[in-house]
Amino acid sequence: MTAPAIALGDLTDPRVLRLLEDHLADMHATSPPESVHALDVTGLQHPAVTFWALSDGDDVLGCVALKELAPDHGELKSMRTDAAARGRGLGRLLLAHVLDEARARGYTRLSLETGTEDFFRPARALYASAGFTETGPFADYVLDPNSVYMTLELGG
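Now predict its structure.
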């Protein structure tokens, strides 16, 4: 086994597409349609979004995206670890990568939206352990009983 590596993701790679399909399927299985804010491939291709994939050898085991909301504010999007690879610390590795990138871009704040369902409990715990705190809606989000909004102040 090699060391996991994070690099810009290829949104035409079938391994990446499978991971994103699994992500969207889980989001739609756990949240009502109006509360699913996950980006599809077209959304991930937007110029304001940077997408990375985490690979270990030939296996794509995770992904994450960073969307620029303003010159000082980013949004964490599409963070996913393959179900078979969970428990290896890959989510923490992806989150650290995005935090480093957000700081390098000069963002003073990084926000995210995730679900309230039990399925999202590990994600919420990971974000809280990194210093994210619950806030209200940001950007174009509105209050939603199925959503939790979190923000991390990165300083400036």
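Strands lie at 5-8, 49-56, 59-70, 73-81, 109-115, 133-135, 147-153.
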